[in-house]
Amino acid sequence: MLRFIVRRLLTTILVILGVTFISFLIIHLVPGDPARIMLGLNATEEKVAEVQRAMGLDRPFIVQYGNWLADLLRGNLGESFITGQSVTQAVVERLPRTLTLAGAALVIALLIALPAGIIAALRPRSPAAYFATIFSQVGVSIPDFWMGIMLILLFSLTLRWLPPSGYAPFSESPLEWLRHLILPAVTVGIVSGSVLTRFVRSAMLEALHQDYVRTARAKGISERHVVLRHVLRNAMIPIVTVTGLQLAGLLGGVVIVEVIFAWPGLGRLALDAVQRRDYPMMQGAVLFVALAFALVNLLVDILYAYLDPRIKY
Predict the structure, then answer these.
(1) Which residues, listed in sequence order, are joined to residue 86 by a DSSP beta bridge?
(2) What CATH number has the domain spanning 97-307?
(3) Closest by CA position to 136, among listed 202, 190, 208
(4) From 176's CA, which of 46, 81, 114, 213 has a CA 20 to 30 Å away?
(5) Ranges of the chain whose pLDDT falls below 50
């Protein structure tokens, strides 16, 4: 197992290097000059060229990437072109908020998907199964931004139970932090939960028709024991896989929800950086998202061996 983890970590380093190079290339191909955006449309060409030299944008692409990579190896992600803030400081400040939102959304998704998917598989013709099927179809079809707007209209503007947007630090007011977290987390959790429900149902149905389940029932083992110890545990491999992908996707894909609810997370930071052509900030955000994907995938692979001892690395 240790050898496998080391090998995966080395592979992850190569993957992240590839991601940073491709993203660095795409970022520089995007139309728009950071120097001109910062100085405004009325800036002279001489002034723009001077700022470009100060930013290092007048150097060849491969030189810029090499300098950025050298700074990265020293633990320095550079400074924002627009605000002058350290990229590392900005990302570290925003990352816990995105982790909180993604984690809360995943918990809500699992609380929805596991019971709905299991019931839909065990009782395929029951009203609960039909409801789970309809919910999964509707949840997949509805965009998260529309879901967020509807929740704001209902719970904020009509019922006035929750704030429509914003963020409150947990250290200042845990209750306000929770009230601001509920709507964005529910928005993402419903959409993610609808996807997970389909996979839970499919994995449970596949496990229910295996020979070992028939054998366990023939031995007189209770249905509850059969479901929990045999069916659910063997169905967890695909469920864990999809859950890991969902978590990694949430860490890098809640940009729209963060914008709708004015949630100051990593996605909002990346969007602002794209709009202002803030290359260092964009590259820092991409790096952390790629790292999150790699670490989540590694964790999922390690969980495989725990869930199924037959898996050997």
Answers:
(1) 79
(2) 1.10.3720.10
(3) 190
(4) 114
(5) none
